[in-house]
Specification:
The complex is a heterodimer of chains A (about 120) and B (about 110).
Chain A lengths: L3 E4 L2 E4 L4 E8 L5 E7 L6 E7 L2 E5 L6 E7 L2 E7 L7 E8 L11 E2 L3 E5 L1
Parallel strand pairs in A: 2-11
Antiparallel strand pairs in A: 1-3, 3-8, 4-5, 4-9, 5-6, 7-8, 9-10, 9-11
Chain B lengths: L3 E2 L4 E5 L4 E7 L6 E7 L6 E7 L4 E4 L2 E6 L4 E6 L8 E9 L2 E6 L3 E6 L1
Parallel strand pairs in B: 2-11
Antiparallel strand pairs in B: 1-3, 3-8, 4-5, 4-9, 6-7, 7-8, 9-10, 9-11
Classes of the chains: A mainly beta (about 120), B mainly beta (about 110).
């Protein structure tokens, strides 16, 4: 596979469930990102990892827990979510950790999450 | 407070004509601007960017214009093709805030 892949593509979960979103990039990049896109809202940056270290936590509630075990994989662990957390969750990667805002970000197709 | 605004949720254009997508920003610290295109069921893909030291950047059928005095940028697509039909996002970053700030997007429909 090439580019940035995300699994699952669709997820429905109850508020008491625990689930994880997975992102994998095959581009040899050093930085990875989680974004949230709610209905009729802009993409919002959630987390940034640079060389497997978290460099940004954009005031995200603790019910979202990211994990970056290596530069190719990024997870978003979900627990006790709320219905308002229903959204499209997008993963992205970019080449150089040192140029987080000038390097092009490559996005995965997203996971459509519904919290009941 | 939205720092990047795309005031037109949708735009419809005839094939072969020019498409003009607009974006306004409020943060004077922004110095790098990008356009992303998104097809349904796919992630956004990078289209074109411009640094604040320029006022125009061209790549094939796509040209981005930046007017810093009024904090406005636009994306011109000419000639428009049906395959250009997608949602177009404007994004900006700069200053101490390196994060990309996105607009809500504009749905472009190019009719054959």
């Amino acid at each position: 596979e090439t580019g940035v892949t995300q699994t699952p593509r669709h997820l429905v979960m109850g508020m008491t469930n625990k689930k994880s979103l997975k992102c994998e990039q095959h581009l040899g990049h050093n930085a990875m990102y989680w974004y949230k896109q709610s209905a009729k809202k802009p993409l919002e940056l959630m987390f940034v990892y640079s060389l497997e270290e978290r460099v940004e936590n954009n005031s995200v509630p603790s019910r979202f827990s990211p994990e970056c075990p290596n530069s190719s994989h990024l997870f978003l662990h979900l627990h006790t979510l709320q219905p308002e957390d229903s959204a499209l969750y997008l993963c992205a990667s970019s080449q150089e950790a040192a140029h987080l805002y000038t390097d092009t970000q490559y996005f995965g197709p997203g996971t459509r999450l519904t919290v009941l | 407070d939205q720092q990047v605004k795309q005031n037109s949720p949708s735009l419809s254009v005839q094939e072969g004509r020019i498409s003009i997508l607009n974006c306004d920003y409020t943060n004077s610290m922004f110095d790098y601007f990008l356009w992303y295109k998104k097809y349904p069921a796919e992630g956004p893909t990078f289209l074109i960017s411009i640094s604040s030291i320029k006022d125009k950047n061209e790549d094939g059928r796509f040209t981005v214009f930046l007017n810093k005095s009024v904090k406005h940028l636009s994306l011109h697509i000419v000639p428009s093709q049906p395959g250009d039909s997608a949602v177009y996002f404007c994004a900006a970053s700069g200053g101490s805030n390196y994060k990309l700030t996105f607009g809500k997007g504009t749905l472009l429909t190019v009719n054959p």
